[in-house]
Design goal:
Helix 1 packs antiparallel against helix 2, helix 2 runs antiparallel to helix 3 and helix 2 runs antiparallel to helix 4. About 5% of the residues have low confidence. The strands form three sheets. Strands 4-10-9-6-7 form a five-stranded mixed beta sheet, with no helix packed on it. The longest helix is centred in the first third of the chain and has 88 residues. The chain has two domains: about 100 residues; about 80 residues, Immunoglobulins (Immunoglobulin-like, Sandwich). With about 260 residues, the chain is of the alpha+beta class. Keywords: Coiled coil.
Length: about 260
């Protein structure tokens, strides 16, 4: 409870109700009750303002969490893609090494004069060696023993298929890049003439300059503003954010009414 405000309200009520219609005890009891009611109203307003601020913060947090989740999914897909590429390269390198070792062994056998190996057997063994590490479904071995591969066609190995699938998935995630957002909030959409109202702004632009504008004039820089209108009717407030790459703006319309209590 705000003690100073409570005492001030008590004295205001006592001064306003200080008439012969009340005795001193009744007057004090009535003023005390009225001051307590005012304090309760003030506390309720504070709770409402806190709830609105929490709602604004939740909207901001939800959007940032969405961006974070999307970036995490991109990173995970990219990491898997890199691992698969590394694995595929390792398998191909090992296949080339195994093929080279097989060639050497075959030549050693051929060079061994004590071993009888016919031309047909030699050709069959050579064809088997040439099949090591083939990654294309349409690969063939010519009559001379050379491997012929049509590289204009896509790879058909399981790893190559997985790489292609992951690449497409990463492309889809990149297409889902979230656009930058901007929002403006107010305590109420209706305000009394000459009474300040709090405005909040939020944007996802990085390193942005932000501010509130009314009739093309800067009211306040930053993401909070106290707006007070001297004119009745509609008041359009614009929240703007800009950096070197992009500019965003969002408007809110307030209804400014007269204070009927004042004469």
């Amino acid at each position: 409870m705000n003690t100073s405000r409570f005492i001030r309200n008590f004295l205001i009520f006592r001064d306003a109700l200080n008439t012969p219609n009340f005795n001193n005890k009744e007057l004090n009891e009535l003023c005390l009750k009225s001051a307590i009611e005012c304090e309760q109203i003030s506390l309720q307003e504070q709770a409402q303002n806190l709830a609105k601020e929490q709602a604004r913060a939740k909207i901001e947090l939800d959007f940032l969490n969405t961006i974070s989740a999307l970036n995490a999914q991109k990173a995970q897909t990219l990491n898997t893609l890199i691992q698969c590429q590394s694995m595929l390269k390792s398998l191909k390198d090992n296949a080339m090494i195994n093929r080279a070792n097989a060639y050497v062994s075959l030549l050693q056998v051929k060079a061994n004069g004590g071993t009888n190996i016919g031309p047909e057997n030699f050709k069959n063994v050579l064809e088997v060696i040439n099949q090591i590490g083939l990654d294309y479904q349409n690969s063939t071995v010519s009559a001379s023993g050379n491997v012929e591969v049509d590289k204009t066609k896509k790879p058909q190995s399981e790893l190559d298929k997985l790489l292609s699938k992951l690449s497409k998935e990463l492309d889809k995630l990149n297409e889902q890049e979230l656009d930058n957002q901007i929002q403006i909030f107010a305590n109420e959409l209706e305000t009394i003439q000459g009474v300040p109202i709090t405005l909040w702004g939020f944007s996802t632009l990085k390193n942005a300059n932000e501010g509130f504008y009314y009739k093309d004039e800067l009211l306040a820089s930053g993401n909070t503003c106290l707006f007070e209108s001297k004119d009745l009717g509609k008041a359009v407030i614009t929240f703007k954010a800009h950096n070197e790459q992009e500019s965003l703006e969002k408007r809110i319309t307030l209804n400014v009414v007269s204070d009927k209590i004042k004469k």
